[in-house]
Write a structure and sequence with these properties.
alpha/beta; Rossmann fold; 2 domains; 7-stranded parallel beta sheet; 41% helix
Amino acid sequence: MASERLAVVAGGLGVIGHAVGQHLSTRDGWEVAGVSRRKAAPDGRVKNVQIDLLDADATNAGIAKVGKPTHLFFAAFLRADPQQQVDLHIDMLRNLVQASDAQRNLRRVILFEGAMYYGSYLGPFKTPAIESDPRVLPPNFYYAMEDWLRAEAKGKSWDVVVVRPDLVCTSTYVDGHGFNIALLIAVYATICKELGVPLRYPGSPAAYRALAQVTDSAHLARASEWAALSAPAGEAFNVANGDFFRWQQLWEMVARYFEMPLAEVQQISLTNLMQDKGPLWKSIAKKHGLADHPYEALAYWPAGDFVLGCGYDVMTSTVKIRKAGFGDVVDTWEMFPRMFDDFRRQRLIP
């Protein structure tokens, strides 16, 4: 019997897209196709399709071969300067939505955004941020995508739901792309331990004390299915674990997990100081029989510098999504060691 719903996940090889695709593939009633510019290894549960969403003709042809999508999950992402990001993401979104709409079976588009919507990248902002907070000065590719999508949906048979996670963590190696702060911390700690130096928080003293939050990718995937099937149309929802923490407290747990002495904060540039550690990582991998992944694919150090150096609270409220019917929460203090355990099982770290 054919599945009643066909999900097309744009950015299917990224941290968010991979989690959403894997989750839906285990749920009754779903057929799942992951779309990416890169060729993916065969997956028994998700049909991975190589499509360049910047190419309208290729997107039309690719979606026609996939079938008749009922739900789109747009998590595709390209790094670029701010205005170029706007143009690139609008092109990708437009091509995918219009190609899928042409199949005349589309019901809902789920657009993934993030705390950047609230200006978290610009400096201190009102916290906890709520979905109705005013926008900040553009360019911001989230605003452009959301505005285009809402305008395109008018008069159509499909509607829109916006999901805003923050700092998504995953326990799975996702083909070396995307940013995963949990794996970055694990790699950083492993290198420090190998060099015989104590574990120091590498960000700013202010960030060490500020309040932060994360979003477990599995939690986000469950919320995404809820957004596809149960969320009220047209609404936007923050999605995070539901608790807050200070790196100062969490860092002590990290030191205990890796059995390392904890030293004082010392702000460094991970981007600069970790770029020459490839040969060291190769020797660590050989000594401990780690999986054969390129060092540069394990951690995106520039993002680590921003997250761990962000000297102000980053908090979004999850009250709205709970009141709307999705009440799941994740204990962040339990999440990090669980993910570290998973990294060890996958031989990503010793």
